[in-house]
Every structure is written in structure tokens, then in C-alpha cells.
Design a protein that fits this description.
Layout: H1 4-19, H2 25-28, H3 32-43, H4 49-64, E1 69-80, E2 99-108, E3 114-123, H5 133-136, H6 147-162, E4 167-171, H7 179-187
Length: about 190
């Protein structure tokens, strides 16, 4: 993270959270001092999800290299913070439900060996757009939630270009069954994901 203290704090904090993934930050930390340090860490403008994921992503790319085939599985999960919403939380599928959606890209071998997280995106919903799917249909793909599936395929294509010795297969559920992905797959020049 460009700062040895932040590196040390991130390692300490990630170990504490990994030891008990279901625990709150308060429960995972060792006392009030650790809890305050954790919240200061997360409030630091240098700290971002991308920076926290960067070393893991680099290690995942190295783990992918020796495999002839790697599946890049993408899916979305819901993080519901309705009981304790952050002050800037927007909504999920209803105005009274607060949280965010996490769209994950996981590298896995066909033998089900998990290699690691290769990408992660977050989004939420504006309460004013709920129930207006008819109006959103005419928007360009880049302005729709479904764009995340196309971005996931593009990520898989980038991995295929960066990993010439590995066949990359993009995997998603039926929510990703959108025309734009199939068009992009046909029109992509050079290395591309299956």
C-alpha cells in the first residue's frame, strides 16, 4: 500500500477477520485499540478494495500459469446491512433493505481447485430506479446492471491475452445470458476467452 504501517495493519486485520469470517470487526479484533485501528485503516483514503485485492490477484495469476484450463466463474451475492446500515448505504431490491451487491470473479480449475479471486466489483441500487425495468430496457448496456456480466467476459478475455499457455473459460449463470456477450465473443480479435 506504499506505507509499511498500512501493510502491517492490513496483514494483521486480514488474519483476524479470516480467523472468524462471520464475526463483526469488533468481535474479530483483539480489544478496543485493535477495533479503533481497524476502523481507521478502513477510513484511510489510501486503502481501497482494489489495493487490498492486488497482491492476492497477482498470486492468483501465478497459480493459474501452470494449468492448461482455468475457469473464471462470475456471480453476484448480496451483502445485507439492513440491521446496521452505514450512513451512506443505498438499497438492495427494496427501499427498506440496505447493503450492496458484490460481483466476484473466481479462478478455478476444472478439477475444482480454487486458485483465487481475480476480480471483484460492488454495486447498489438507487431507490428511485426500483420497479422501472421497462424504462431501463432502452438504456445502453453500459448503463445497466447487466453490464457487469459483459465486463466479466472482458476480464476473462484479458486473462486469455495475458496467459497464452492457458485456456480461459468464462462461466456464469443464466443471468449472464445476454446478447451483448455473444456479439463480443464473435467480434473479439486475437486471444479471447471461451
Amino acid at each position: 500500500m506504499g506505507d509499511e504501517r498500512l501493510n502491517k495493519r492490513s496483514k494483521h486485520l486480514l488474519e483476524a477477520l479470516a480467523a472468524n469470517p462471520e464475526a463483526s470487526i469488533n468481535a474479530a479484533c483483539n480489544g478496543w485499540g485493535d477495533t479503533v485501528a481497524a476502523y481507521r485503516f478502513f477510513d484511510n483514503e489510501v486503502v481501497s478494495p482494489e489495493e487490498l485485492l492486488r497482491p492476492h490477484r497477482e498470486a492468483t495469476l501465478q497459480r493459474m500459469a501452470p494449468h492448461p484450463v482455468v475457469l473464471v466463474v462470475q456471480d453476484t451475492t448480496e451483502l445485507d446491512y439492513t440491521k446496521h446500515p452505514p450512513k451512506d448505504a443505498r438499497c438492495l431490491n427494496k427501499p427498506e433493505r440496505f447493503g450492496l451487491y458484490s460481483h466476484l470473479h473466481l479462478a478455478v480449475t476444472p478439477d475444482k481447485l480454487i486458485l483465487g479471486v481475480i476480480g471483484l466489483d460492488h454495486f447498489d441500487r438507487d431507490p428511485q430506479t426500483l420497479g422501472k425495468s421497462t424504462e431501463r430496457r432502452s438504456l445502453p448496456i453500459e448503463q445497466k446492471e447487466s453490464f457487469r456480466w459483459l465486463e466479466g467476459y472482458r476480464l476473462a478475455c484479458q486473462l486469455a491475452a495475458d496467459s497464452p499457455g492457458t485456456r480461459i473459460v468464462s462461466v456464469a449463470d443464466r443471468e449472464a445470458d445476454i446478447y451483448d456477450i455473444f456479439v463480443e465473443a464473435q467480434q473479439t480479435q486475437g486471444p479471447r476467452a471461451d
